[in-house]
Amino acid sequence: MKLNKIHHVAIICSDYRVSKEFYVEKLGLKVIREVYRKERDSYKLDLEIGDSQIELFSFPNAPKRPSYPEAQGLRHLAFEVDNIEETVEELNQKGIGTEPIRIDECTGRKFTFFEDPDKLPLELYSRV
């Protein structure tokens, strides 16, 4: 068996409008397609990030995330960036708070965390 790459990551949000604005307007992800599924009262928004995708879902009455970030399951989603300082500054200018930039002990690369509107932990990780 050979797994080629991660095709997509699925995120369930609590407020579709707010999360769509965050991922599209603030993070700058490109919309591939948006579908409203009437039978589920649910939106599905496919977003392009490099050669992968994020699927943003809305479901009525979805349970909240149990804790930050050490709940079992997906811990966080990491985005690779060329210049972490510039990216942090841009996020901060858009009203998105970030943790202090740290250095990964294993790779020597810079990284930091921020949150989406539902407090999902998101990471910025320096390419070099």
From TrEMBL:
Keywords: Metal-binding
Keyword Metal-binding: yes
Statement: the UniProt record of this protein carries the keyword Metal-binding: yes
Residue span, VOC domain: 5-127
Protein name as annotated: VOC family protein
Organism of derivation: Clostridium hominis
